[in-house]
Amino acid sequence: MSARSQNRPKVRLKVRPKYYDLNLFNLPLPALVSIFHRITGMVMFLFMIPLALYLLQATLKSESGFNFWSNVLNFPLVKLILLGFVWAFLHHFFAGLRYLLLDLHIGVTKAEARTSSMWVFALGAVATILFGARIW
């Protein structure tokens, strides 16, 4: 080491705290679509698919199993949970279609991305409402 580098005072950088604003209301709409797409994918993988497979097995096993689960699905709280699962599937489906279009470089500008994300939320909500009207 040279004499010059030995005489230099050591500068310590002050580590400043980082502030992450995790408030979902401040995010742009395409970011919300992305976050909900990931959450709905996780919900479907962890809850919906195993539950659907179990219900399929239980209802196909016997007529009494079918009647039991048919009665369970008539409770309003169960229908509300089912509507939540349906919205998760439909949102994931429409967002997936949006991402396929983005992969084809369709709708990649800021205005088009915002419009397509509005369509994802609108189509998911409308399809869920139609499904809810059908089961109630």
The structure class reads: mainly alpha
Fourth CATH level, the homologous superfamily: Fumarate reductase/succinate dehydrogenase, transmembrane subunit
Low-confidence stretches: none
SSE pattern: HHHHH
What would your notes on this structure say?
The protein has one domain (29-135): 3 helical TM bundles of succinate and fumarate reductases. Helix content is 75%, strand content 0%. It contains 5 helices and no strands. The N and C termini lie far apart (81 Å).
For the structure shown, list the relevant keywords:
136 residues, mainly alpha, 3 helical TM bundles of succinate and fumarate reductases, 5 helices, elongated
Write the layout of secondary structure elements.
Layout: H1 3-7, H2 29-61, H3 63-72, H4 76-103, H5 110-135
Helix pairs in contact: 2-3, 2-4, 2-5, 4-5
Quick overview of this protein structure:
The chain is mainly alpha-helical and 136 residues long. It has 5 helices and no strands. The protein has helices spanning 3-7, 29-61, 63-72, 76-103, 110-135.
